[in-house]
Amino acid sequence: MTTKFIQTRVHNHYTDIKFKMYVRKIFSLCLYFQTDQGIKNLPASKADQLAGSDPDYAIRDLFNAIANKNFPSWSMKIQIMTYKEAEKFRYNPFDVTKVRCNE
To answer: How much is the pTM?
Structure first.
């Protein structure tokens, strides 16, 4: 079984809300937060073990990092698309199941 066990401080975070902005033109706005630590994943077997034996692993990892003055940080990224660009895009840019921000 493959399990994705998320370590909060070493993953990107995406808004699950897309925005329409009206400033004389209609814009699609996508916000996301990119980890400055780099993305790190646990092997699936270790994640399975921790999910059953230590469900607070990620919280403790974050707490210990902060206690050791290893503060996590994220860079906020904003992607703006005009309405005309959105109409021509290969899928609906307001579809929350898609991650347009990486493109």
So the answer is: 0.59
